[in-house]
Specification:
alpha/beta, Rossmann fold, seven-stranded mixed sheet
Length: 555
């Protein structure tokens, strides 16, 4: 594997980790964490430099004797020992100063400084860093996290257990992880019974438990199991008797003395780690695909609800009967004024010479009232539809465990956004202003029409705004009345000033801008729910990319 390929896997692992949420399934989070930490803490630095110091990690449950082994390897008391308590609360590192510095910039960089204690370096072996990990079954989660991180960073694991604890679930789960990443492994079974027959029973049962597990010994041929009888301790009680753990001490001494042996072990560990990534990468890809499918489903619920309510709102606005009767009466009384109807009946073209004097007696257009009333009605109708969409989404999401949990953390998701009314009021004012701008632009070429000029830009903008809602097309039967009458006179007013084609273009443009505005607001409302789940397209792309990097990993 090249450094570029390793970096690509690391990038994908980081992407996966960034898309996780706190309420995701524990197994999903654990697999993503394993991939991220293993690639970052082990694959990247080891691919970049096989000459980096080997990391030998001593692992085991509380009271198994791993700190006793650590003191034995260090030839002095560097780690607290005990049987009943989680004595190893931090990782204890035995390494030369140069090796510790090199590893702090790479493989051990992910272990917090507060959780890594340096042992005196006098007895450290150059090229080999030994780490006594926190207890695997510690009641403190931070300790377990550090131990897990060290599993991902190790080149060689020494797993310490006892004659009565070798099948405990938590340590055995870690042992399975060691196996799955192809990590070279030594197993030390402490406190064996003194009788040969009893000892054989324990070791035989251990091998039965491990049967079928793809563990690798140092020579890739067998599981390396070493037993130590009960009570085989040095006088201090802090380390094993010299001959009890001699085989393990010799193995570590050989690695410290032989560079080629270290490089060979590093290559073997890297090959095993790369092979072990294949099923892990596939498992993470499957997790991502499942998340993408769920995200599509829950986002689809929101999309469907908001699309339906937006369509209903637009249908209501297009139906010709949206505005309240009292709103239209303000405008009807204006467009029915005697002066205006007289202009309609006699024709504008014949009045251009005397129109300026005639319009002086016209009533003032109720511009402010109409703007406020129409805006208020639009806000009310939109708020009602947005609230109904939110209720529909929340109701359907509440039947799904994770979406339901996310809803529970934000009760406002059962209704429209608290600020939607304020947002709409601001944007609707801008919409009315855009109509006035268009009226002014279209009227610039018709300044000789004193009638239109005298009415004023704002009044004509309101006329166009009313034209968006009050029109005769499609209004029949009992709906004919004030809507039809007002719509007819309003259209005649605009048509007389701008011409029929320009009038239709102006009203159509205003309607399209309004519908786009409402669509944008509904998108913002729906986005509150979309933000609670990852982007399905991004997840699908990530799953495809993860599967694309498997080929270089496969042996």
């Amino acid at each position: 594997m090249t450094a570029e390929q390793a970096q690509l896997i690391a990038t994908l692992a980081e992407r996966r980790w960034s898309l996780l949420r706190e309420d995701d399934d524990a197994g999903v989070r654990d697999r993503a964490r394993q991939l991220r930490e293993h690639v970052r803490a082990y694959i990247l630095p080891r691919v970049a430099a096989l000459e980096l110091p080997l990391i030998v990690v001593v692992l085991g449950p509380t009271g198994a004797g791993k700190s006793t082994l650590m003191n034995t390897l260090a030839r002095g008391p560097v780690s607290r020992t005990g049987v009943l308590r989680p004595t190893t609360r931090e990782a204890v590192l035995l390494a030369t100063d140069a090796d510790a510095e090199a590893l702090s910039q790479s493989a051990l960089g992910g272990v917090p400084d507060a959780k890594l204690v340096r042992a005196p370096a006098e007895t450290a072996r150059a090229g080999v860093a030994i780490v006594d990990a926190p207890d695997l079954d510690s009641i403190e989660r931070a300790n377990r996290v550090v131990a897990d991180a060290l599993v991902e960073a190790a080149d060689l694991a020494i797993f310490v257990t006892t004659a009565v604890r070798y099948a405990d679930k938590v340590p055995f789960d870690v042992l399975q992880r060691i196996a799955s990443r192809g990590l070279p492994l030594l197993i030390l079974v402490n406190r064996l019974p003194p009788e040969d027959a009893d000892r054989d029973v324990v070791l035989g049962d251990l091998r039965r438990v491990l049967a079928g597990t793809p563990l690798r010994g140092l020579d890739d041929a067998r599981i390396e199991v070493i037993g130590i009888d009960e009570g085989r301790l040095a006088e201090s009680g802090e380390s094993f008797a010299p001959d009890a753990a001699a085989r393990i001490v010799e193995r570590v001494d050989e690695l410290g003395a032989d560079r080629e042996r270290r490089v060979a072990l590093a290559k073997r560990a890297l090959a095993g780690a790369l092979a072990g990534l294949v099923p892990l990468v596939e498992s993470v890809a499957v997790d991502v695909e499942r998340e993408a499918t769920e995200a599509e489903a829950v986002r689809g619920i929101a999309q469907k609800a908001y699309d339906a309510e937006l369509a209903a709102l637009i249908e209501e606005l297009r139906g010709g009967t949206f505005l309240r009767t009292e709103v239209l009466r303000h405008w009807e009384s204006y467009v029915k004024a005697d002066q205006i109807t007289r202009f309609f009946s006699r024709g504008l073209g014949r009045l251009r010479g005397t129109i300026v004097a005639a319009v002086r007696g016209m009533p003032e257009a109720p511009v402010g009232v109409m703007e406020r009333e129409v805006t208020s009605d639009l806000v009310s109708a939109t708020l009602s539809r947005a609230t109904e969409a939110a209720r529909r989404v929340a109701t359907e999401w509440s039947s799904r465990p994770r979406p339901a949990d996310r809803l529970a953390r934000d009760p406002s998701l059962w209704s429209a956004s608290p600020d939607i009314a304020a947002r709409l009021e601001t944007r609707l004012k801008e919409w009315v202003a855009s109509i006035a701008t268009e009226v002014q632009a279209r009227g610039a070429a018709k300044r000789d029409l004193a009638f239109g000029v005298s009415l004023g830009v704002n009044a004509l903008a309101v006329a166009a705004m009313v034209g968006v809602f009050a029109h005769t097309a499609g209004v029949t039967g009992t709906e004919l009345g004030i809507v039809a009458a007002t719509g007819f006179l309003n259209q005649k007013l605009l048509q007389a000033i701008f011409g029929e084609a320009a009038m239709r273009e102006m009203i159509t443009g205003a309607r399209e801008r309004l519908e786009a505005l409402l669509g944008d607001e509904f998108d913002k409302e729906r986005a509150r729910y979309d933000a609670l789940v990852a982007d399905p397209a991004e997840l699908h792309d990530l799953a495809t990319s993860l599967r694309g990097v498997r080929a270089p990993l496969e042996p």
